[in-house]
Structure formats: C-alpha cells, structure tokens
Amino acid sequence: MSARRILQAVLRKGARLAEPGEFTLRAFLNGRIDLVQAEAVLDVIRARSDRAAAAAMEQLEGSLSNSFNDIYNSLLSVNTELEALLDFSEDDFSPTLIPETVKKFESIRKQVCSLLNTWEEGHLLREGALAVISGKPNVGKSTLLNALLGTNRAIVSPTPGTTRDIIEETMILDGIPIRLVDTAGLRVTKCDIESEGVARARKCMQQADLHLYLVDISQPLDEEDKNNILQLDPKRSILILNKSDKGMRLLLVDIKHFTSITTCLIQENNLPAIRQAIITKLGSISGVQSHAVISERHKQILLSVNTGLCEAITMLQSQREDMIVPCISIIRTVLESLGQITGKVYYEELLNSIFSRFCIGK
Questions:
Q1: Which CATH superfamily does the domain covering 16-118+293-355 fall into?
Q2: Cβ pair 125, 49 in contact under 8 A
C-alpha cells in the first residue's frame, strides 16, 4: 500500500510509468547492447529451467552476437571483393576469381546452416517440448500423466472415454521444460463431445515434439492401433507397453525401430526408464547443450539469408560476367537482412515487435 501511494505521488508530480522494455530499448539505442542481447534479457526473465537460463545468459554475454557479426563481416568482405571485380578490364580478369568467391560464399553458407541447426534446441529451451500422450481409451494415458507429474492431475477411471479434452501441465526433466499433454482416447464415437476431444487429440499429435503412445499389452493389437503406430515417427516417439501385470501378448507389428518400454503404470513400474527415455529422445532431437541458440526471429531471417546465398552462388557458378551485378544486388539485400538480427539495420516496427513483449520497465 505504501509503495503504491509513493508511486501515485511521483506520477502526480509529472513522472510517468516506463514503457514495456524501455530500459533495455534505451540500452540498445545507446549502443550498450545489440538486439540479440536485448532479446536475451527477455529470455532470462522467461527462462523456465536452468538450461534455458544458462543459454540466455550466454546470449546476453554476446556469444550469439559474435557468431552473427562474424558472418556479417565475412560476407561484407567477400562482397567488397566482388564489387571490385567490376573495375577489372577483360585482360586483367582472372578466371580463378569467381570460383574463389563461390568457395567463400559456400563457407559462409555453412556457418548460416550451423546456426539454423540450433533452432530446434532454442525452441525446446524457450517454449518447452510438447510431449503428447495418446492411445486408445483406457490404456493408461491419464495414469502416465499423473505418474510423471507425481500428482493426481487427471481423473483416472476404468470407464473408457473419461478424458474428453486435452490436459496440459509443465514439468522439468534434466533441465528441459516439457509441456506434458494428456489427450482423449483415440476411437470412433457417436458422442459429439468425445468426438471433439479426439479431434483435438489428433491435432496435438501432429504438433508434438515427442509422442508417448500407449498400448494395452494385455490385449490383442487391433488394426487402429497398428495404423496409429505405423504413422509414428520413431525418432520422435516412445511406445509405452502398459498393463504387463495382466499378461503380455505379442505385438503383431514391427516396432524394432521404436524406443519401447514395458510397464505397469498403476504400480509405477519402470517409471525411471520412461523419464530417461524422454530425456534421451529430446536430447537426440535437439542436441541440447545449454549454449546460445537462435530464436524464431533469427531463424526466419537466416532462412532468407540462406536462400539469397544459394541464388548468388548459382549465379556465379554460371561463369557469366553479366551475373556479377545482380549477384552483388542479392548480397546487399542479404547483408541488410543480417543487419536486422543484431540491429545494425532496424526500423520502428522491428523494435516495437521485440520490445512490446517485455514487461513494464526492464
């Protein structure tokens, strides 16, 4: 209450509340940090795990900025050399100049692709991995959710179709935020509400970073289960073979390419193995190492940079001198795009889109 009264008194005397991200914006405009470091401030604030915070701090310290600046400076240097070719006479023009320039562009493109490969890791650290639990009704999906969370979050019942909507909770495993989603049982039903739940389940399955598909190992595998399993990506899926306490039947489908764990979830059997499989699978998907990684904004710009470099390389590989001028034009556009990542090039809409996501002040 006292703090609020003091604030109101200060405002009455002519002060104003800071805009979202205003202090970080001022630091950028005054040249103390670049845009990549400014975005890292928000990442530090929003970090949901130690790994995410460590990656954000490395970005704030300039690690990612240095990588972008290296690419920018290398490309600027090569483009300067390319523009100098325009001053060469036909007699002075060396046939090796263009091939050498192509090699330099290809080397820069490899650096761009290397940074693009960190996006998946950045996505998992910033947004959290979407791990979707799916399967037919009454196979133990809600039991798995509760077991992994260590709390009775979802209603568990022997009645099929109990879960009719998606249930999402967040947990941290080995420093990786995981958005764990329980879904409605996959089956054809005449109930409109349950049908909507199944539709939402299938939509979540399409968006999943990791898929936990449950099978009742005590029952024969029907065609729907077989089809669902065959549609899964083994690299992003774990088969949970549940209800082993009731006896085990052979799965009449090839699962040797899948990570599979046999369990009795009601007894929390093999739960540590399931957790470890999730960690291992997410690690193989992203290669999470807790180093500075690119964001969605960086990714989209780098994709356009990669496209531009490919076009420029193709033009020069034609060995036509008349392609040098349009190639230079493309590289200038690429340089402008790269400049938007760190803030060498910026405009009001770009700054608004970045700093409007900040909380008041900061």
A1: tRNA modification GTPase MnmE domain 2 (1.20.120.430)
A2: yes
